[in-house]
Fold this protein.
Amino acid sequence: MKTYDAKDIRNVLLVGHGGAGKTTLLEALLFASGGITRMGTVEDGNTVSDHDPDEQRRGISVSLAMAPIEWKGVKINALDAPGTADFVGDLRNAIRAADAVIIVVSAVDGVEVQTEYAWELAVDEGLPRAIFVNKLDRERADFQSTLDQLVSSFGTQVAPFELPIGKEHEFGGVADLLHEKADLYPNGPMAEESEWPDDIHAMADPAREKLVEAVAESDDALIEEYLEQGTLPEEHIVSGAKAGFAAARLAPVLVGSASKAIGIDRLLDFIVEEFPSPLDRGPITVIGKGGEAKERPSDPAGTTTAFVFKTVSDPFVGHVTMFRVLSGRIRPDSSIYNATQNTEERLGQLFTQKGKEHETIAEVPAGDIGAVAKLQASHTGDTWSTKDDPVQLQPVELPEPLLAYAISPATKGDEDKLATGLARLREEDPSFHVARNEETHELVIYGMGEAHLDVQMSRLKAKFGVDVHHTPAKIAFRETVRGKAAAQGRHVKQTGGHGQYAICSIELEPLPRGEGFVYEDKITGGAIPQQFIPSIEKGIVKTMAEGVISGNPMVDIKVTLVDGKFHTVDSSDMAFQIAGSLALKEAVEKAGVVLLEPIVQLSVVVPESFTGDIMGDLNAKRGKIQGVEQIGGGKQRINALVPQAEVARYVIDLRSMTGGRGAFTMTFSHYEEMPSHLASKVIEEYQRSREEAHKR
Ligand code: GDP
């Protein structure tokens, strides 16, 4: 593919709720522009962008796809990002590679949770956003109600530029409100110009009013003119609409059907004519070594700076790294400096990706997007620059992944393959975490939700050949004692050969929460030699770490050594360790065990209308509400202390309670005594699993 100048490049991100039609729209854009000769469908699993086996199976996009589209001398780098909150990591990084966003909305389903989410992301990044109302050919498609929902969700900046001609299966064209002309699509994806339909006034008049209002509001001079005249002259509407969109103050609404390729050529024209090129975006701010802000203009002659917005493992070509050049140019077979990882990397051939196909390119200048295979060190989110001027983009902010699964390889001996696979997936996706829990001895993966973790596990299988089993990650409980008790530990074996002899008497008592362990020696008159006193402590500490009845460590106890007996020949360090352990176990039994559970500090942010439901649910989860704060934007923050065991799957619970409109953070607070009926369950489960392990 030829090299394009920045002025002839458009980097566009397609976002929206899953199922709105992003994948199909990308396919239609490629088809209408002649980039492919026939349109694949999501149902047949043969679209350009959905090529992951997971995506074909699920029928939804689960990872970022990209394709270059050439139209009227311009290259449109279209990125198709997955729409669900589970894949926020991809979306947050991809949006940084784009200069504008197309929010795809289904005319059947209207504004959905991820539509709002995508809108907010684009607003956060200050990117111009256009809305494509799709599926107008479908039964129950309703443009008017979709437009009303858009206006009520996003305000008057939503400006209809187009209207559908014909309803549902009769949808056949687009009425252009800006220029009052009509395009019909009787034969394929190219518009045929037609008369402005007579019967469209009922819809067009109020829509045009909305448009004029949106244009007026996007510019101070225009609003004055509008308030004085009650309307705007034609040429001010057109120029104001374009300027408002470029300044991200007005969101044009375009219409069509991706699967019937209606309105697609018009969308291509709109992208080419109205979407910002990388030059319009202005210089991008990066952070130098000493923390100082620097500017990188989109200039191919500038200092080389690029952003890695995605890395993917591909079983056929290996590791693929996708990058956006902010300044300077990247050439094949050259070296780049990865400022985030502080390493130099050698690049091979550069290419552009059209789904899974690669087309080589001679260079990637400022403003363009490219890909390269087999890099070792570069991860999603890294910045490339030069060694003498290492700069980085501000890191992308991602929510903490809070759903945890414990995993293990299904086949013994696959541990190494699993470790390699997990390391790769981690590099590809900053919203995926992996940790070994030293206490529960589990390998734990953390993700944004069930779909995220399911996809990661099927990637482990498909790309790294490791099948894994998963269970909910264990909660780290603690044991302690309820009352005081005294006990004797006796380890005496004196039949034949070298004997063993150790006896110790201890007193056990509980300590306040968080005090840990105190050991006191109150032996008088040298009942046992000094050297064995630490041996007893060692035995006790070891037993505490393993736990006495639930496999969880024991904490917050004081042990006083009061007496003991020894034998000059048969006593040893080991014998006294065992005696100490036996003494503790007996004392614990007498004093009564209590299980402590971790309590987390939970902070939930939701639209006000959900506050009541959230509090009710937290009460049912044994939570203690600490307070509710108003935080603006019609949202409230609810703070509560809740047992961790109750909110291990809160990601899923909150999503189903609020339809995805809530967010939360969770941090460990302290340990608290667990209700005895729940403690008994934990203990029973532990005993059962030990018995099973014994049988094996
Ligand atoms: P994505 O999840 O946003 O990528 O959505 P897809 O492109 O996978 O589309 C979801 C479903 O809607 C698929 O069954 C598509 O065939 C269908 N679809 C997409 N666009 C249209 C359209 O314009 N008209 C109709 N009738 N169906 C569509």
